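1st attempt posting a full record on here, be nice pls
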Amino acid sequence: MTRNKLNKGDRRYSIDKNPEYHQVYNRLMTKSPILNAEARRKDPENAGVFSNRKTTELALVRLVGTEPDGTYLLNNEEQTGYIVIAENALADIHRRFAKWQKDQVARGNSYVLPEEWPKALFDEKLRLEAGVDIRHRERKVLEREIEKLKKQDSEKRSKKVLRYFPRRLGFNPQGVKPEICDQKVSFSRGDVPIPFIDEPSSPYNRMPVREFRKLAKDYKKKQDEERNKLQAQYDDEIRKYGSSDISVPGYGTQKNFPKSKLPAWPDGVPTIEQVEDELKKQTAE
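the predicted structure (as tokens):
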């Protein structure tokens, strides 16, 4: 049974083939704190692997690394991911088999390279294959969990973004996580970094902060004018009739501003990329 890249982590042999492989695979799966909740409870070091997104991502880093070669830094020391370690060991057993094949010809035991593995070497290969496959199965479980947590985080973030629009227009450029109106703010890479909204869930994503502030202030001005007009009508009816059915919105901060009522991106307002391109043209001139 041959595997391809799309199903790494699955058993590479059908259940009726190579029972030694399946014995090791089952044993490793039972011992894995990622694949087995009972093993996780008995392992203090990995008991919290699914506690939150940070611990789950760290567990994935320990498996796959952060660099193309599968390495990563931990406490300023280079470490190698478990998957690379397992795959290197498996590659080494294949090199040993290739050497054994040549030795059989050199010793006069065969005219051609033997295809059948010696039992001790084959058993070790099965053990190492099971180890590689379990590591990839752990990787797939962690990746699915991280995607689920990312989606949950994105949904929470989306509810928070712009909930106080058109207020909260100030931000601290030197802050650890600068935000404006609960939207993440990043800076362009030019000589003079320009702040812009870097929030995929916002309809104003990639809009320069300067333009967003203007949009919000224009909206607030229009909102205040409409409120003042209603207030005048209300006051007039109170004077004339002693009562009024007109409802005047309060002046306090409105929570959970309806996303459906957010103003559209104004015509002519550039993205941060367009601003940077225009500045480059001006510099070139």
